[in-house]
Design goal:
Length: about 290
């Protein structure tokens, strides 16, 4: 088993672990956008750049860096801070100032990383590029192409999880946009996961859109009762009212995903006709 060092902290990891995962074992969080533990490595956002002190080249991206014996990386150097600031400035160059009205606000990775690794302002003197806003991608999803940072998570989800290959990145450089092939439709039964894995407000739920600011919601771990699979979920609620179900990662049951049919069973929790009392041997027992 490889022994690596992250910011001077020595950790022993399993073979095949990358340095984002190794750093997490050492209690160090490496920011990232395109990396997702249940998808292939794309390495296109560059947010996880770190300095390599021993055992490799440096700087390098941690998501595509396999842990190997003797590898030492540094995530807290001045050089790493400057790289992260530069990446944030690059990603925000054409990003719209939508935060006050964006439905992703409060759970946006771009907001979080800017707060921690940005705050450097913009040097853009030209007019920002504009892309189509509020497009109906499907009956479940609204696409705001201006907010997309081209992380390609949704593309890889379609290629690797649903095997539908429906979403693609079109054009090049800062004109890159996410979209469907002409004549194609997004109609598989796992669309909610595309919304979950989008790190910004590019893909939002038509059902949940503008229903509730997420910082008001409480999270309770639970199990989906839509079928016998028993997907692990998080119930998001406020004042006794349920607003949505989201998948809770369990590698042995549902990985990081859940189907749309199970996701939509949240409505039953608020149904006025829902049975809240049980009759046992002639008496009523309240278990609401």
């Amino acid at each position: 088993m490889p022994v690596v060092k992250v910011d001077g902290i020595e950790v022993t990891v399993e073979n095949g672990v990358n340095m984002i995962q190794a750093a997490a074992l050492a209690g160090v969080d490496i920011p990232h956008f395109c990396y997702h533990q249940d998808l292939s490595i794309a390495g296109n956002c560059r947010m996880c750049l770190v300095d390599v002190e021993a055992g490799g080249r440096g700087p390098d991206i941690a998501c595509n860096m396999q842990a190997r014996d003797g590898l030492e990386i540094r995530t807290d150097s001045d050089n790493v801070s400057k790289m992260r600031e530069s990446v944030m400035e690059f990603l925000l160059k054409n990003h719209p100032l939508d935060c006050p009205v964006c439905d992703q606000s409060g759970e946006c990775t771009l907001q979080d990383h800017y707060s921690d690794h940005g705050n450097n302002g913009s040097r853009l003197a030209d007019i920002k590029n504009h892309a189509p806003k509020r497009q109906t991608l499907s009956e479940k999803i609204i696409l705001d192409a201006e907010r997309c940072i081209a992380c390609s998570r949704c593309v890889r989800f379609g290629d690797e999880i649903t095997n539908t290959g429906d979403l693609r990145l079109f054009e090049r450089t800062d004109h890159t946009e996410i979209g469907l092939f002409p004549g194609e439709a997004l109609d598989h039964g796992y669309q909610g996961n595309l919304i979950d894995i989008c790190p910004v407000g590019a893909l939002t739920s038509r059902e949940f859109r503008f229903q509730k600011r997420v910082w008001y919601l409480r999270e309770t771990p639970s199990i989906c009762t839509g079928c016998a699979t028993g997907c692990n979920i998080v119930v998001e609620h406020q004042s006794g009212e349920v607003f949505r179900f989201k998948p809770r990662r369990n590698p042995t049951v549902n990985s990081s995903w859940m189907c749309d049919e199970g996701r939509e069973t949240w409505n039953r929790s608020n149904d006025a006709s829902r049975i809240l009392m049980a009759k046992v041997e002639g008496s009523r027992t309240d278990f609401a």
